[in-house]
Amino acid sequence: MIVELKQQFGNVFEAALLEEIARVGTLRAVPADFELIDIGEPIKGVPLMLNGAIKISREDANGDELLLYYLEEGDSCTMTMAWEMGEKKSKIRAVTELPSQLIMVPLSAVEQWSSHYPSWRQFVFKSYHKRMEELLETVDSIAFDQLETRLWEYLLEKKRIIKKEVLTITHQNIAQEIYSSRVVVSRLLKRLEQQEKIKLHRNAIEMLS
To answer: pLDDT tens digit string along 89-118?
Structure first.
């Protein structure tokens, strides 16, 4: 584990902290579409991403899902750190978008490191700042952007994350993640296809531009 840690976080954490993470952390390799934690489940640890991508989402009272952001290599979900101080139950759902490798850090170590390692405090602060910017972008998108623009930006982000031209996803899945209806999403996708930005296939979308 120490080798992977040094490769991804060697320029972020001091050597003593890397050794501590290797001592208490658990290295996990998980396939795509694997649910790491669901809403309401106990928070057992904080992830440090070595590679891959994890989709973080919320759910409203009607069961509709909203994509918040993705965790990528070098990231951590500082939202779990914040909620750990309270009820210790997750308010998010985390599902792997790609096969991923991560280190799960026990919650008991997180608070201790904040008082002992300056690099950890700085890492957490930067992670909070990044997550807050992404959340504000999501809120702005819902509140101000036209749905077609939001859909197109969603597809571009999906393409960037999975690094493939063909996105294997249903219209219903998209509707859930951008907080819309399947009928509206299907109509907008057809419009994007007419603009020659995408090509629609059965349960898949080919990005053309």
So the answer is: 888 899 999 999 999 998 888 878 988 999
**Which residues face 26 on adjacent strands?**
104
Pair 119, 105 in one domain: yes
Q: What is the pLDDT of residues 16-64, one digit of tens each?
A: 999 999 999 999 999 999 999 998 888 888 899 999 999 999 887 777 7
Q: Domain check: are 8 and 39 in the same one?
A: yes
**77 burial type by CB count under 10 A (0-12 exposed, 13-18 middle, 19+ buried):** buried
Do 84 and 74 touch, CB atoms closer than 8 A?
A: no
Question: In the prediction, which pLDDT does 9 show?
Answer: 94
The answer to whether residues 112 and 192 belong to one domain is no
* pTM over 0.85, yes/no: no
Q: Which of 173, 179, 175, 207 is nearest to 193 (CA)?
A: 207
Q: Do residues 149 and 118 share a domain?
A: no
Burial environment of residue 209 by CB neighbours within 10 A (0 to 12, 13 to 18, 19 or more): exposed
43 secondary structure, DSSP code = P
